[in-house]
Amino acid sequence: MNTDFRIEKDKRIVSLLMLGGEQLSGEMFVQRYSRYHVGSEEVPDVLNSPEPFFPLVRAGDTLMVAKHQVREIELVDDSGVEAGVAPGARAEAVEVTLRDGTVRSGRLYLEMPTDRPRLLDYLNRYAQRFVTLYSAGGIRLINRELIERVRPMD
Questions:
Q1: Nearest 5°: CA angle at 23, between 21 and 28?
Q2: pLDDT at 36 over 60
Q3: Measured by CB atoms within 10 angstroms of the end CB, which terminus of the chain is less buried, N or C?
Q4: What backbone torsions phi and psi does residue 121 show, to the nearest 5 degrees?
Q5: How do residues 92-140 score in pLDDT, each as one tens digit?
Q6: Domain edges within the chain
């Protein structure tokens, strides 16, 4: 097998909660260099990329997972992800309620122009598929389409 064109990737351990309630744990692959920012690619980059599927390796078996069927992803190894927060982004403590009544609390990092700094502006302009919520328990990526409401905690 010719590996001249192989792209080296790193693994990240994740736990997925699917729309049907099934929990899947495994490894996702990230590239050592990001297409979108300085540094390595991270799980949020993969999930928010335009491709509709991503590979998840579980005990040697590879699943092709549809992003729109993922409710939440918990990053088991969340080292380096918060380092990807843009300088000057403002932390906003929030409570996120999903359609099924699940409530998650944590911080969103608002990357907004100074003339539109409100949480409402951020939510209305946010176009990514998954919202990254930082909490004491770790980092969760929440499917934006499943968010029913967000309440500021400050």
A1: 135
A2: no
A3: N
A4: -60, -45
A5: 999 999 999 999 999 999 887 767 778 998 999 889 999 999 998 889 9
A6: 9-75, 86-131+144-152
